[in-house]
Specification:
CATH class of the largest domain: Alpha Beta
Structural class: alpha+beta
Shape: globular
Protein name: (2Fe-2S)-binding protein
Number of helices: 7
Keywords: 2Fe-2S, Iron, Iron-sulfur, Metal-binding, Oxidoreductase
InterPro entries: 2Fe-2S-bd, 2Fe-2S-bd_dom_sf, 2Fe-2S_ferredoxin-like_sf, 2Fe-2S_ferredoxin-type, 2Fe2S_fd_BS, Beta-grasp_dom_sf, Diverse_Oxidoreductases
Pfam families: Fer2, Fer2_2
Order of helices and strands: EEHEEEHHHHHH
Number of domains: 2
Radius of gyration: 18 Å
Distance between the termini: 47 Å
CATH architecture of the largest domain: Roll
Strand order of the largest sheet: 2-1-5-3-4
CATH topology of the largest domain: Ubiquitin-like (UB roll)
Length: 181
Amino acid sequence: MTSFTVNNNPVHYKMDPNTPLLWALRDASNLTGAKYGCGNGECGACTVMIDGEAVRSCQTTIAAIEGTDVVTIEGLSRERTHPVQLAWIANNVPQCGFCIPGMIMAAAVLLKKNRNPTEDDIKTALTNLCRCGVYPRIIEAVMRAARIQRGDETIDAGPSPGIDPAAAARLVPALTPTGGK
């Protein structure tokens, strides 16, 4: 059994120790923010934070991270108030959204280490691929997130765009058999 912490919760996976972290998160923990993109660690869609470092979860086995602290996009800020999340929304970065969780996690790690990154720092730290090609907006969003984090700029986050999971469950109508009709 492999044990570590995910989003401040201790987890014990009864899975093959060679299981990639991505699949443990998605299949066993239902944390689907990290995406399967290329499967070989090049695209960055699966990026999560492990002990403060940006890591491609498709290339990391659960055995390799025994005792570590993992943060996924779901654990970064449930209310979406992390400076990177605020800047991403304010700068209209999302298009298809597939790469966004991995990009946000890589940017959050960068800003933890460097509160005033240059454009080159951002390009070096964010090697994730964005198939929509919104790189100029991503760079500006990271710079804006740095300003927010430093207190040089504020953004009114407004209400959380999400819905309470319990409320969402009540909105889904029960499936009833149609009797083949």
